[in-house]
Amino acid sequence: MSELKNDRFLRALLRQPVDVTPVWMMRQAGRYLPEYRATRAKAGSFMDLCRNPDLACEVTIQPLERFPLDAAILFSDILTIPDAMGLGLTFNTGHGPQFDKPVRSAADVDNLPIPDPEGELKYVMDAVRTIRRELDGRVPLIGFSGSPWTLATYMVEGGSTKEFGKVKGMMFDQPELMHRLLDKLAQSVTSYLNAQIAAGAQAVQIFDTWGGVLTPRDYQEFSLRYMQQIVDGLTREADGRTVPVILFTKGGGQWLDKMAASGADCLGVDWTIDLSDARQLAGNAIALQGNMDPCILYSNPERIREEVASVLASYGKGEGHVFNLGHGIHPNIDPDNVGAFIEAVHALSAPYHR
Description:
By secondary structure, this protein is of the alpha/beta class. 46% of the residues lie in helices and 13% in strands.
């Protein structure tokens, strides 16, 4: 594998010194880029794009051609595991993801296979290998998965939801069944992420998109417990380097102290908590990633620069900060505003690292 030319992202995750704060964006390879939309049209559908390693590589690298980002993230989707379990995933315009066979009964859970990462999910591993080769050491590659709770949410609901009635109904009414489902998903995610690491991912992130809809008690029992299980089972070294692990629970700012005890290297933080408070809550012993509101990018370069300065000041001096948005970039953001954002992070952060 090629020598890494820019490792400030990996260094920041491990709280090591960097020259400037590294920056990447969740959903950085996405619909806000006209070149992405062109490649997706060529692929035919979203899942066809995910399943084509060459095209997945192309869209992964597109944002790096425009912006001096400090990391690439594998182009894929969090629902690849339930899709590989045979639930019949489709993406319908305006309706988001939908499953033909939602998981509602004990028989449904018991019949779920644990997918083979180099079998049903080989297209993801092929994409990781292709991207890693094409990056040629330019920046690190991030692999990822959805959290067990988040995957279970889509699988039980049968798609997107605002009420969480079916998944919470199962959790409250049949907790043992929910635990069986979550345990199976934790095993699947662990093998999936370890296969991504073996294929060349240099850091991994677990996206717990829906952990924040739970009570503090239920978050610990049904979400954090299974992310902890995954962290405990992950390969933590490859190519002679530590492979850092990032946990991101949207809406989970109040639980950063609990998350910090998981053994992860970094916690993603959304915009509903100041980084200064997050740093204190996490005990200043773990890296933090975030946390600019993505909607700031609807404004103008001057306002974006002010917000970047504010986020940097909130984290303050010292190592262990990866700049990111508090969630994914929105599809209709002007790419020029993204360029102003990335430039501002690098330009304004140097004094915090002297």
